[in-house]
Amino acid sequence: MLKIYQEPITQKIEDPLLNEKGVSLFIKREDLIHPYVSGNKWRKLRYNLIEAKERGYSRLLTFGGAFSNHIYATAAAAKEAGFECIGLIRGEELATKPLNKTLSFAKEKGMQLHFVEREVYREKDDPDYLFELIREFGEFYLLPEGGTNKLAVNGCAQILDINTKYYDIICCSVGTGGTLMGLISSAEKQQRVIGFSSLKGNFLENEIQLKMKAFGIKTKVSWQIEDHYHFGGYAKTSKELIDFIINFERKTNILLDQVYTGKMMFGIYDLIRKGNFKQGTKILAIHTGGLQGRSSLLSPH
C-alpha cells in the first residue's frame, strides 16, 4: 500500500576515533525508504494502513504537535493510500498563527487540521474523549500519537533482518518507543539494543516495559536507554549538538536532524570516546528519518 522508493542501504562510517578505539560503526539508512514517509514512520504506518483498509475504514485520525514527524508522514501516507485524514494538533493558539512548514505540508496533502487546547489534548487516550471525536467526525481508524501501537512495533521489527544479525550493538533514537520495541523483539539474543532518548527524564524505560507487556513482547535480548543525550528535552538543542551534526554531515554526506538522529549519533560517539565498547565491537545505528524537522541552523553549511 505504501511504496518503497529505495531499499535501505547500510554505510560504514570512517573516522579516526573509530580506528583509535578499534570499533566499527555502520548506519542503516531507513531514511531513504520514502521521501515523505521515511524511516520508522514508514515502518509504523505500513501495517496500520493495511489493517484500516481491511476493516473498511476510509478515514484516519491521529494526534501530534506542530512540528511532528508523525503528522507530516501520516498526511503523506494517507494521501498516497487514499484515506481521508484528520490531525488533532496540540495548542489551540496555533489556529491563529501562520502554519509552519510541517503543518502546511500536512494541509497540502489533505489532512484536516483541528487545533485543540493542551488541556484537552491530554485526554487523547481517554475512551470518553475518543467517543466524542467519533460523534464529531464520524467513524475513523485511530493512529495514536507518534504512531506507536502493536502493528507499528511489528513493522519496526522488520528493520532488522538476516543482514543485521552480525552486529554486536543496535542503536536507535527514542521518542514513543515503538522503534526500540521493534528492535528488541527482533534482535538476535547475543545482540544488545541501546535507545537514545530525545526526552528529558528517566521514565521511558518503565513506560516501554509496560508497553512491551501489553503488546506481548518478551525480552530475549539485553537492552537499555541512554537518557543523558537529550540536550534539555524534546526538540531542545545546543551549539555543541549543532556543531557535531554539521561536522558529521561534512565527513559522511549523511544528513541528521537535531531532534532524534543527531542526538543518537552524538551519544554513540561520546560512548565510543569514553571507551564504553570493547575493541572489535560492531555497532549498527538506525537512521529513522525525521529530516523534515531539521533546524535552519543545519543548512546550508
What would you report as the Rg, rounded to the nearest angstrom? 19 Å
Briefly note the structural class of the backbone. alpha/beta
How much β-strand is present in the residues?
15-25%
Shape: globular
SSE arrangement, N to C: EHEHEHEHEHHEHEHEHEHHE
For the termini, the CA-CA separation is 37 Å
Number of helices: 11
Spatial order of strands in the largest sheet: 1-2-10-7-8-9
Average pLDDT level: 94
Largest sheet: 6 strands, mixed
Which percent range fits the helix content? 25-40%
Description:
The chain has 301 residues and is of the alpha/beta class. The chain is 38% helix and 18% strand. The strands form 2 sheets. The protein has a 6-stranded mixed beta sheet. Strands 5-4-3-6 form a 4-stranded parallel beta sheet. It starts with 9 loop residues before the first strand and ends in a 14-residue tail after the last strand. The model has no long low-confidence stretch (mean pLDDT 94).
